[in-house]
């Protein structure tokens, strides 16, 4: 299940290091490397994961319902 992701960001001509770091951080965010690290940092039981995702779905549906009612 281990997936290796290599993100390379070479510094372009006349580009500052700060700009290259910004591009690198955008690539890392887009790949979801930090999110997957935080998610796998601690073991989460499958039942707890299902419960957490169901709670999130309920919250989203509740917000959408409230938004429809106001319209």
Layout of helices and strands, plus pairs?
Layout: H1 17-31, H2 33-40, H3 46-70
Polypeptide structure, described:
It contains 3 helices and no strands. With 71 residues, the chain is an all-alpha fold. It has one domain. Helix content is 68%, strand content 0%. The model has no long low-confidence stretch (mean pLDDT 90).
- The count of DSSP E runs of length 2 or more, i.e. the number of strands, is 0
Shape: flat
What is the structural class?
A: mainly alpha
Q: Please tally the helical runs, counting DSSP H or I stretches of 4 or more residues.
A: 3
SSE order: HHH
Uncertain spans, ≥5 residues at pLDDT below 50? none
**Over all CA atoms, what is the radius of gyration?**
19 Å
Keywords:
71 residues; mainly alpha; flat
Gist of the model:
With 71 residues, this protein is an all-alpha fold. It contains 3 helices and no strands.
């Amino acid at each position: 299940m281990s997936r290796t992701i290599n993100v390379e960001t070479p510094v372009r001509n006349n580009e500052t290091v700060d700009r290259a770091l910004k591009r690198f951080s955008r690539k890392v965010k887009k790949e979801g490397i930090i999110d997957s690290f935080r998610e796998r940092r601690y073991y989460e039981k499958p039942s707890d994961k299902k419960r957490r995702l169901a709670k999130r779905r309920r919250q989203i549906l509740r917000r959408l319902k409230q938004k429809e009612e106001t319209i």
